[in-house]
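Incident log, structure service

09:12 report received: a user says their structure output differs between two submissions of the same chain.
09:20 pulled the input from the user's history:
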Amino acid sequence: MNPNIPQTDRKRVVIVGAGFGGLKLARKLSRRKEFQVVLINKQNYHEFQPLYYQVATAGLEANSILFPLRAVFGDCKNVHIRVTNVTGVRTADKAVDTELGPITYDYLVMATGADTNFFNQQNIIEKALPMKSVSEAIALRNRMLQNFEDALSVETQDEREGLMDVVVVGGGPTGVELCGTLAEMRKTVLPKDYPELDFKMMDIYLIESGAELLGPMSVQSQEHSLAYLQKLGVTVRLNTRVKDFDGRLVTMNDGSTLRTNNLIWAAGVKANPLAGLPAEVIGRGGRIIVNRYSQVQGFTDIFAIGDVAMMAEEKWPNGHPQVAQPAIQQGGQLAKNFIHWVRNEQPEEFTYRDLGTMATIGRGLAVVDLPFLKFQGFFAWLTWLFVHLMSIVGVKNRLAIFLNWMANYVTYSNSLRLIIRPKLPKGDVKAMQEKLSDQLEVSKT
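09:34 re-ran on a clean worker, output below:
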C-alpha cells in the first residue's frame, strides 16, 4: 500500500482528523496556492457530534448528520484525502505512519478529538454503551429497539424491567439531552409502537458525580434543566458515582444498585493524541500542551487543535472546553497563521470567543447561556434548533433535519425506529472480531 501523495513545491500541511477543527482548517487552506493539504480521517465523512443522541433515539437518520469529505473538497486540486488510521508520528523524520504507509509533512496538525473516558473501569468498558461516534449511536438505537422487542416475550418482571429501564451516566449536555429525549419517547411514541408493554414501569435514571447538571453552565440553567427532567419523570441522582456494572446491576459508590441491562456512558472524554510524541507534551486527560499559536510544546512544525489540544489562556488556565466552538475557532486562526508564516509575517495569538452554551431537555424545553443573556423554555428551544441547524454542513442535510424535526413536532412520531444491522461475509466478521479483540487487549494494557 502507498498513500500516493504527489510531490510538489508547495508547503505540505498534513491534517489528522476531520472533525470541527480539522475540517475548518482544511477548508480555509483548500484554495490557497501556497499549500498542499493532506486530510487523513478514519471515515470518509465529517460527523456532526452534537446530534449523535438524536440518531441514537431514532429522531434523525444517520446520514443527516454526516457529510462526505470528497463532496466538500471535490474541486480542490491541492487537497488530498486519505481514509486510513494513523498509527504514529516520527517527529525526527517529519512523517506520520498510516495503514497506507508513511506520509511526510512540512506542517503536521493533530485534530484527532477525544474519545469516551471510562476511567479504567474494565467491566464498564466491556458492558456499557458509549456514544462518541455515529456507529455507536446506531448500535445504541438498535440495542434499545431490540430490547423492547425482547421485552414482549420474556417471562419474568425482572427480565422485562432489565430490558426497559435505562441508566445514563454523566450530567453534561449529552446525558441531559439523551434522558430528555428518552422520556419524551416513553410518553408519546413507544406506547403506540408497543401497546402490549406498560411503559409506566420503564424507569430512566441520570447519574451525575457532581453536585449539579450541566456543570459549566449558569446556576439558573442548571436548576431549570434539573426541574425539566424531573417533570418529564427522569430520576436524577447527583453526587453519585457509578462504581461497577455487570450487565444486569449498576452499583453506585454508596452501595446502592439499579437493575438494568442498559448502562449508557456519557460521563467524560479523554483526548486522542498520536503515538510517538514526547511524554512531556501530554497533559491532563491526554491533551497535548500547545502555545497560543497551537504549536505543540517544543516544536515549531507540529500543531494540535480542538479537543486534543490544551491551550491555556488567562480565563481558561486548564484549557478550553472540549466542545465544537474552540475547535472551529482554533482551526480558523491556525489557517491565518500558516499564511502569515509562509509570508514571513508575525502570527497572531489565539483568543477564544465564548459564544455561549446551550442544551435541549425535551420537546419545547431548553436552556441557553449567551455571554449577554441567559434564558430557558420554549424560546431557548427554538434558539437551540436554529443554531444547530445552521451549524450542519450541507444544505441538503439542513433541509432533511428541518423536515424531520417539524414532522416529529407535529405528529409525535417518525419512521426511523428501525433495527438495521450490517450483514457481512463470514470472513469479514471473523477479521472484525479479531481486530476488536486486539483493540480490547491494548485498552487493558
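09:41 both user submissions now match this output. Likely a transient worker issue. Closing.
09:42 reviewer note: The radius of gyration is 23 Å. The longest strand covers residues 35-41.
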